[in-house]
Design brief:
The chain is an alpha+beta fold. The chain is built from 3 helices and 5 strands.
């Protein structure tokens, strides 16, 4: 099962609002729905994920979804936790330090 962590939920809201403001409601809904489909593909190894660099201090993985990087990890109960989602232009290490 995929679980969305608080910081990821905030990012999803930001992505939706940004796309709504700069695009359309249809575009925002499609982007978010496709993002959730990508989350669900993790369980079946249908997305190529890479280990998060040790500099981030989080034991987990990431993959690229369009212009975003999705960071996830296995939770204690073996569920998949979506840690956060960062736009490709965001400084990755600095953003991870904010959620620790």
């Amino acid at each position: 099962m995929v679980r969305i962590q608080n910081s990821a939920a905030l990012r999803i809201d930001e992505i939706y609002r940004y796309t709504l403001k700069n695009g359309s409601e249809k575009q925002a809904k499609v982007y978010i729905n496709n993002l959730f489909e990508a989350f669900n593909k993790i369980e079946n190894n249908l997305v190529v994920s890479y280990p998060i660099p040790a500099d981030f201090g989080i034991n987990g993985f990431y993959f690229r979804y369009e212009k975003h990087f999705v960071y996830w990890k296995y939770l204690e109960n073996k569920d998949i936790g979506i840690v956060t989602i960062l736009h490709e232009r965001m400084h990755q290490i600095k953003q991870f330090q904010k959620i620790k």
